[in-house]
Amino acid sequence: MSGSELAAQVAAVLEVDPETFQSSAEEEAEQLKAEVLDGTFDNAQSIIGLEQELYAVDDRTDALQRVPRRLLDRIGFEKELGLHNAEIQTTPVPLSAYGLKAQEAELRAHLHAAQQAVKREGIQLVSDGLWTVPPNGETATDYLCGNIEADGIRIATNMSDSVRYHAMANTDYPSGLRVDAPHVTLDAETVMPESLITSIQPHYQVAHAPDLPEHFTYALRVAGPLAALGANSPFFPPEMYDDVPPGRILADAWMEHRITVFEDVLNPQTGDGDPKVCFPPDFETVEDAIDDIAADRTIVPMDLPQGQRFDDRFRHFRHKHGSYWRWVRPVFDGPSHSAANARIEFRPLSAQPTIRDAVAFQAVFAGLMESLPRREHPLKKLDWQTAKANFYAAVCDGLNAEFTWVNADAQRTQSIDEIYGELFEYARDGLELAGLSTEQAHEYIRPLRERVDRRTTPARWKHDHVSEAVDDGVPFTEAVWGMQAEYADRQSETLVEGSFADWLE
């Protein structure tokens, strides 16, 4: 699509009346509530799914690589924000031993086939939290900030041709369009800096839709500890840092910069409006969750024609999910009446080093969602402010963060071993409730338990690698890029078959 054609489509979207759009969304929200209470969004059992994002690199230099659109189509991956991004979503399946096995097999089959196809183009697909090596011959800043103006519309030159993404930079919504992290400041004119980051997103469909708020309450309470376990983005591209000594960068680095990138790029700057990317509130009822989505300001309202999907009856409400960016969010949709579902999308996790690690998070999260409500665990009494504080402590310090947890005896504790010991125990219990054997449950949990036992996450592995190189006199830029090369090399051997724990042996 040419720049002028894309600009014309963006301009057309910007003509949509936001008040008319909002009125339609609110009417649909009322219809949705009625359907939820009527049982339309209930399932016979819990259902799981997973989104996996990756980025492409040159397989010789590890530099970021744009992926030809024809190649994405051929390997069956979806476009994401940046031209270097790719995404795959698994087929939702029942939570069971067979379901988890199917999720892992589907990811392995697709990724193995994709890697073989892109390898012929000199490309490697990487599962990682934040890329650090810019395209050959370009700087990270130029790549992220490059844009043109076409017929009065701002177009990012390295962004996919999604009209919605480009429209975000041309609305009156005051997105920050910047990155502000320790020793890093970047100002842009589009949302393209968000393409720095990649993630995995486990999905958990509740069996009974009105029960979603109780599961959601527990999901917020485990968000901090799980985000700490999954931390995988301690560094930016080196040229983005201020001119400060490497020791200060290393000392001040956060373990999960992916969180601040998403928040800084898309949230209004202080005083300009309510944040959209944030730790969400608790909900008393499923109607409260629906109302919160309906009330959220839509950055890019669109004129949406009636389609053939069941949830096209709620198409304006469903579109609002596209900018309802909460780190844990409720979703109500389904292509058919029988597939209608109420689910929780768990969004704080960086993309992981291997498929097995990604599925481990999926299993642990699902297990917790099964067990904690069923056992009426006292963790739900942990106040919301503390749960939020746990989350942002994980962002900064990973497994070194100070968490507060309420244990099974309703006692508050900050013991890391007690917190994760109980978290894994209830995940095991939930998986067994879903039909897994004890050994099967332990097998899914083991990769994450290894991280706690060794006090080593992917972010810590990266940080230690760079720190040791700098101590040996390697310049900071070379140390980061050397770490990234080692990461890509190890992943090429373990992404499909293996786990991050193999890197630690």
TrEMBL record:
Gene3D superfamilies, per the entry: 3.30.590.20
InterPro entries, alphabetized: GCL_type2/YbdK_subfam, GCS2, Gln_synth/guanido_kin_cat_dom, UCP012666
PANTHER family (alphabetical): CONSERVED PROTEIN (PTHR36510:SF3), GLUTAMATE--CYSTEINE LIGASE 2-RELATED (PTHR36510)
Listed name of the protein: UCP012666 family protein
High-level lineage: Archaea, Methanobacteriati, Methanobacteriota, Stenosarchaea group, Halobacteria
